[in-house]
Design goal:
about 30% strand; seven-stranded mixed sheet; D-amino Acid Aminotransferase, Chain A, domain 1; about 325 residues; alpha+beta; 2 domains; elongated
């Protein structure tokens, strides 16, 4: 069963839905409730410098709970995030999934437009359902730190949501950079929920948060098994074994000493594509020198007769 059926929620009619969406997007910068995948060294450097709040990312379904007032009537709404776009003008009314909740009265000021961003998750036994809040937005939260926002949630809203509720409403636990070892090697292992990554939040949630996700890696952490060792190559020009495949421009790179899989080669342009297509007409495996592209975080094989590489491909 899902949260809608467990709480016996009713779908909001279209006219009210459209008015609620207008309120939602005027109550906060909705784009800040969305995330960016952590992929680049630049993002990682920014995270190290800003020292953000860190939290565990659980597997689940993303929703927002929205408290608002429309035509003098107070509403508590559950809205699926999957269909919501970064701006209201991009939304398609027939795709939105919005339901009316029945929450015991909370302080009137929160009905001026308060957004609880979170996920519906299950425990490992797949029986216990919970809604975990990992973001709060609205007039009364804008200038506060994330820690302060969570304190207000626990003080003013938490108990009202949980009163006579068949599911648990709770808040995410925040960690700091120096607590990462404890989080990764103790807390993840102890969790009874499926952990798939980490979330990195700015101090006031004034920008989209970053997410690092590797389901297999966190499964190994949870099971207290060693992580696979990733080789580091310090030289920008490195020689690898390069093997062909049955797909155009797909070549596999391997460590020249121990045959460790390094990943796919990056073929940046038509000249490089044609060059290696000709070579692999008669070969299956070759030795080739590669340059590391920081932009794509991949190795680019070097054509022996092509030296004029565009620096934009590498930086």
């Amino acid at each position: 069963m899902n949260i809608v059926s467990i709480l016996k929620l009713k779908t909001v009619e279209l006219n009210l839905q459209n008015k609620a969406l207008e309120k939602l997007y005027s109550s906060c910068v909705y784009a800040n409730t969305r995330y960016e995948m952590l992929k680049t060294n630049e993002q990682l450097a920014n995270i190290k410098e800003s020292k953000p709040y860190i939290s565990v990312q659980f597997q689940g379904i993303a929703y927002v709970i929205f408290f608002c007032t429309i035509e003098n009537t107070k509403y508590s709404l559950l809205i699926s995030k999957k269909e919501l776009k970064d701006t209201n003008s991009k939304n398609k009314s027939n795709e939105i999934k919005m339901f009316q909740m029945f929450v015991p009265y909370i302080d009137e000021k929160y009905y001026e437009g308060t957004v609880l961003d979170g996920k519906v998750i299950r425990n490992d036994n797949m029986k216990d359902l919970a809604f975990i809040v990992h973001g709060l937005y609205g007039k009364y939260f804008d200038e506060l730190t994330f820690e302060q926002k969570l304190e207000i949630f626990k003080k003013d809203i938490y108990s009202k949501l949980n009163r006579n509720s068949p599911i648990q409403f709770t808040a995410t636990k925040l960690y700091f950079h120096d607590q990462l070892p404890e989080l990764l090697f103790q807390k993840v292992h102890q969790s009874n929920k499926k952990v798939i990554g980490l979330m990195f939040f700015s101090k006031t949630l004034s920008e989209p948060y970053c997410v690092y996700t590797d389901e297999n890696e966190f499964m190994l952490l949870k099971e207290n098994k060693p992580l696979p060792i990733t080789k580091l190559y310090n030289n920008s020009m490195t020689e690898f074994l390069m093997k062909s495949s049955n797909t155009t421009d797909v070549y596999y790179l391997y460590d020249i000493n121990d045959n460790t899989d390094v990943g796919l080669a990056h073929i940046p342009d038509i000249e490089t594509s044609h060059y290696f297509a000709q070579i692999f007409k008669n070969e299956h495996t070759i030795k080739t020198k590669c340059l590391k592209s920081e932009k794509f975080n991949k190795w680019i094989p070097i054509c022996d007769d092509c030296y004029d590489y565009n620096l934009d491909l590498l930086l």
